[in-house]
Amino acid sequence: MQDDTTAYGERSIAYFSMEVALDPGMPTYSGGLGILAGDTIKAAADMKLPMVAVTLIHRKGYLNQKIDNEGWQTEEFADWAVDHFAQEIPVSVPITIEGRLVVVRAWVYEVKGTGGYVVPVYLLDTDIDVNNQWDRTITDHLYGGDQHYRLCQEVVLGSGGVRLLRTLGYNNLERFHMNEGHSSLLALELLDAEAGRAGRKVFTHQEVELVRKKCVFTTHTPVRSGHDQFPLDLVKAVLGRAEIFDMHEVFCCEGVLNMTYLALNLSHYVNGVAKRHGEISQLMFARYRIDSITNGVHVGRWASEFFAGLFDEHIPGWREDNFDLRYALKIPKEVIWQAHEKAKAQLIEYVNTTSNADFDASVFTIGFARRAATYKRADLLFADVERLKTIVNNVGPLQIVFAGKAHPQDVQGKEVIKRIIAAKTQLKDKVQVVYLPNYGIELAKLLIAGVDVWLNTPLPPLEASGTSGMKAALNGVPSLSVLDGWWIEGCIEGVTGWSIGNDEKTGISAEGTDGRDADSLYDKLEHVVMPTFYEQRNAFTEIMRHAIALNGSFFTAQRMLQQYVQKAYFI
Ligand SMILES: *Cc1c(COP(=O)(O)O)cnc(C)c1O
Question: Of 22, 230, 247, 321, whose CB has the highest number of CB atoms within 10 Å?
Fold first, then answer.
């Protein structure tokens, strides 16, 4: 191991996340939250931020997806070879669950930055002989099992994580960043440590203030099911203690432990993940002060080989200082188009060899890929298939590529996939549609760079940020999207891409109905986006260039972390 990682005492920021996407071979993430965590850690390593990260190992990885002929998703967990990617460390820590001793060990995965600096990520693991059979499975399934299973996982992450860092010798941690509420129990562990020093179990107000100074909390969704709540009886049984819950400064209320409120109560800085999401969260949690830091993506990870090559040639230094991507403005348009053609050819090759489709590189191609959750409305484009056929007759051919996994227990999400497959059959002779299985890091890379337009149709205000459109922008692919999340900040109409469903007269995004948003989507496609693509290639390429220069340069994990440094880490 490098000196950087053995100098434990120099690390001051601990970043906790239930999921982290580190390597395409490690299925330790489900979607945007994990990708963001991975991008954050990579950017921290580039910036030589004194960070260390903690997550769970998720041995039975998330998720091999199969889609049958009727469009129904089935899934299996994805086994992976832990020791192929991570190194076991010779340290383990005890925690208590339901009065039992559970031993937690860890593996380390080293994220190396552009300058060689390493941020270690510790993956916690309860699969050891000394634990009983059930306890050995606690760190197996990301978002698996029932509430009891989830709570046990959160005890491992929060308490186990803090104890591990302490045991390893990270003695100067000044900030604990909770990436979503799953890790809030870390704050309780810090409180216990403070009270324990004074020989008490119950905390004082001063101790709460002390812990608050150390904690930072990022909330990631306005969707209710994204905020874990556990019945107090369950919590008391699992944590094996009852006395602390009377302290309303820390815990509230009405028979449940809400992990979001626990994090809110114990953090000095709280943020949403885009401007609009900050405002929505402020309305949801009126008693707290909620700021916002808009998400960003790691440019080295998400620039396709073709665009990375262009940037290396025209903007050397872009990986170290991402703002330099602004100077994409000086890259000749033809060269940008050629790089796009190569990325598109790569995607189309993949589509045609893995499915029985016959995609054509000269045809306008729309991409849509995200978790198959209902609020994302993946099938909005098929609200009126006849209208879609008319557009193709009037303007030119169209092909569409979809991808995305539904959570195994999300029947409605699975039904969205089914409806897309049904529409594919209806459109067969007019519009080619494919649904590619197993959306993950690798497939995302192909898609975001290889399509002509990146489509997003969430129901506002439920898309907290969204990051796939940022990855697309970096590769010169403009978004066509409902004004929600990051796109409210990123959209300059006709310059960086196009909006769906905003009221042209007031300029205010309507929290529209499906019908109204679908109409707007069809209108934009027929009268603006597709004509520009087919008849004004020069203008289309100019929009691509602006997507890179204005959005690719700003919506980066590096800028995001600089804001965390200024607002949350070092103040
Ligand atoms: C970027 C990414 C996401 C998140 O994208 P959204 O726009 O937030 O939906 C999810 N999954 C994968 C594999 C990604 O690469």
Answer: 22
